């Protein structure tokens, strides 16, 4: 039983770390896409920038799944 608990904890930490490293990559993709001046409406641009900022806030707070989900929405709008 102790082995299973240890294994489960290890797997959960590994999954959390994977999300943690994924967030900066997504933020970089968004930043690169924004630097290319994409053809977006003003409303879309505001939304992408808000989602990007919210994603970074979630990442820094350790809420990596929320960060990944939020950044994914921004990338979808950008077509990344």
Q: Please, could you describe this protein's structure?
A:
The protein is mostly helical and 80 residues long. It has one domain (2-78): Substrate Binding Domain Of Dnak, Chain:A, Domain 2 (Up-down Bundle). Helix content is 85%, strand content 0%. The protein has helices spanning 2-35, 42-60, 64-78. Helix 1 packs antiparallel against helix 2 (42-60) and helix 1 runs parallel beside helix 3. The mean pLDDT is 85.
Mean pLDDT: 85
Q: Enter the CATH topology name.
A: Substrate Binding Domain Of Dnak, Chain:A, Domain 2
Quickly count the helices: 3
Reading off the top of the CATH hierarchy, the class is best stated as: Mainly Alpha
Quick rundown:
By secondary structure, the protein is an all-alpha fold.
Spell out the blueprint of helices and strands:
Layout: H1 2-35, H2 42-60, H3 64-78
Helix pairs in contact: 1-2, 1-3, 2-3
Question: Features of this protein?
Answer:
80 residues; mainly alpha; Substrate Binding Domain Of Dnak, Chain:A, Domain 2; 3 helices
């Amino acid at each position: 039983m102790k082995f299973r608990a240890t294994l489960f904890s290890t797997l959960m930490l590994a999954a959390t770390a994977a999300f943690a490293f994924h967030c900066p990559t997504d933020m970089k993709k968004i930043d690169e896409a924004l630097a290319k001046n994409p053809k977006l409406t003003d409303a879309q641009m505001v939304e992408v920038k808000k989602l990007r900022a919210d994603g970074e806030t979630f990442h820094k707070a350790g809420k990596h799944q929320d960060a990944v989900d939020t950044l994914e929405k921004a990338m979808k709008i950008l077509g990344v």
